[in-house]
Each structure stands twice: as C-alpha cells, then as structure tokens.
Amino acid sequence: MPRPILATIHTTALQHNLARVRRAAPDAKVWAVVKANAYGHGIERAFEGLRGADGFALLDLAEAERVRHLGWRGPILLLEGVFEPRDLELCSRLGLWHAVHCDEQIDWLSRHKTHVPHRVFLKMNSGMNRLGFTPQRFRSAWARLSALPQVDEISLMTHFSDADGPRGIAHQMAAFSAATQDLPGERSLSNSAATLRHAQDAGVRADWVRAGIVLYGSAPDFPEHDSAHWGVQPTMTLSTRLLAVQQLQAGDTVGYGSRFTAEGPLTIGVAACGYADGYPRHCDTGTPVLVNGVRTRLVGRVSMDMVTVDLTPLQQAGMEVGLGSEVTLWGRAGNGAVLPIDEVAQAAGTVGYELMCALAQRVPVVVD
Asked: 65-103 pLDDT, tens per residue?
C-alpha cells in the first residue's frame, strides 16, 4: 500500500468561505485570489469550490491559461500586471485584465497592437511601498493611460499593509481617497483582512474585494482572531497514520539531537509525515496535533519523513491507539475535530499561507 500521508481539499469549505466573504461585503464583487497555485491547493482542485466568484486574480500567465482551460469565461486579473511587452499579446488573446503599476507598463501598452482595448487596474502605492504609483504621480499615470487607444476602462487599486493590525488602514485610505477624488472607474482596495475587519465602510469594500487567505480557511489576523471567530472552515487537511508506538522510560530521549527527554514513563506514536512532505521542521515539542481527533502534541524534532507524538491524552481518555491510528497535522479529523493551520504555523514561527504553499509534491492530494 502507499505511504499513508494524504492532503484533502474540501470543496464545500471553499464554497462556505466564499459565501462568508460575500456576507462581509454584500454589495461588492469578489475576486477569488488563486495565485501560488491557489495557495497550494491546486487551481484545478479549487476551481469547483470557487467558481461562484465574480473573477479570478492571480500572478502569471500560465495560471491564467489554466483557469481559461477550465472553462472560465469571466474576468481574470493579473495582480502584478505583465512582465514584458509580449505578455500583452496573451492578455489580448485570453481577454485578461491586468494591473499597471509602473511607467514601463504604460510604455508597453502604448506600443501594443490590439483590436480590443484592455481593461486595466491602475495601482497606487498608498503606503505599502512595493508596487504602484505614489499618490503624487497617480493622476498623471491615469491621464497617460486614458489617452491610449489600447486602453478601455481604468479601474483604481491599492493594497493595505496593516489591515490585520493595530495601525489599520486610515492613513492609506486618506492617501487613496485624496489622489483619486473625482476620477472615474471601479475601485479595488480590500484584501482578506480588510474585508473581514473593515468592510462595514462602503468606501473600503468598494466595488471589488480581493479574497485570498480567507477563502482557504485561515484567519488573516491570527492570533488576534482565529478561523472560528470569522466563521471560516479549513479547506486543506493534511493527515497521516501512526507507523509505530514506542514505550519510553524516564530519561529516554526522542529524535535527532535528543531534543526531548521523558520525565517518566511515556507512550509515543511515530507518524508518517516530515519536512520532506512540507511539514515545517521548525515545529518542535508542544506543536499541536490530533490523534484520532484528540488534541495532543509533538515531542522531539521533526525528521525528513516522521514526527513523534505524545499519546498520553488518548490513554487518559481510555481510547485505544496503535498502528494505523489517524493523525491530523492540520485541518479536519475524521471525528470532525478541527486543528487550525494557523496554530501549527504559529508553532513554526510562520503563517498559514506558507504551510499551504509548501505542501510537497510527493504528498498525494484528493478532493472531497
């Protein structure tokens, strides 16, 4: 039989989370952000759960082609725009909308030969300081674009740096509002955090919200709020089974570097998952895990192919556990118990985004 590790993509959870976004911004259209291969879920696997969105937003042309090949005829937005002039040819052929964030992209458009003008999203750098025109230069960039026959409608876009934290979005909203006053075109401002935390303001949610991590069941402002607080469900479960059970005595150590020492008699399980599967090596003793749906902890260091888990909580509950018992590294266990991916990421000193995107190719993936 194959090694028992498995990633499961939950279509109904994707649909549920999309509906949750719509409740947060009921009068806005929703971009389903599927960059990074749908945050590691796989565009083809996530498509059925997200096809109720108004459009798909992503980064590269190959992913845009995949969405079109799935039969999607609605809007597709390239969030970083094109990377060289010839990319505009594929935009014309596939009917892609694209961001414009620098003078060079406007220059390329001015030389592009197309029968159908392009829909573009002019991006403002309102304080994130990654991509976009500064507020002082934004109107002149808009004027250049509006004069081009290659350009149809111009939408206006920015990205919040602190929608998930105490600084908030007021400073960026002020910059965006002042620079775009009286300019026509639809607006797109809100990422997942702004949609959940600030979309009660109609000016924030605007015409389009860009739903990313919230669609995949992670809380954009964890640990202040968790996924249960926002009412979103895990869309990826990483599960495996126990390969062995070991009985330890006081003073016995576990794993490479002897990072864990048993203080007394202890039963541990060995599970088929490691950093070669995308499980973070930085997880250490205390990282939460579910065994047969019961919360317990890792002990010792994560190996390439195995982790070790404390079976004490199951013994205390009088539950039988042994070879083949279910282990849930994140997501939903067979009994319905949930281990949020954000908790595992926190133990590894990272974010849920990285764990989703880091799922290794050797892990089989199924869709339910």
From this structure: 999 999 999 999 999 999 999 999 999 999 999 999 999
- Confidence (pTM): 0.96
- Cα–Cα distances in angstroms (integers) from residue 368 to residues 5, 45, 134, 319, 359, in the given order: 16, 10, 45, 28, 18
Which of 113, 123, 256, 275 is the catalytic position? Answer: 256
Residues 49 and 192 grouped into a single domain: yes
Residue 28 lies in a domain: yes
pLDDT at 1: 76
Q: Are residues 183 and 289 in the same domain?
A: no
The tokens describing 130, both together, are 């990654």
Does residue 35 have an active-site annotation?
yes
202 and 244 in a single domain? The answer is no
Question: Domain check: are 53 and 95 in the same one?
Answer: yes
Active-site residue among 35, 39, 123, 216? 35
Q: Is 123 a catalytic residue?
A: no
Helices 87-94 and 61-69, interaxial angle, to 10°?
20
What pLDDT band is residue 290 in, cutting at 50, 70 and 90? very high
- What range defines the domain where residue 60 resides? 11-218
259 in the same domain as 212: no
In angstroms, the CA 40 to CA 43 distance is 8
| Domain limit, last residue, from 168, 190, 218 | 218
* Interval 163-204: pLDDT, tens: 999 999 999 999 999 999 999 999 999 999 999 999 898 999
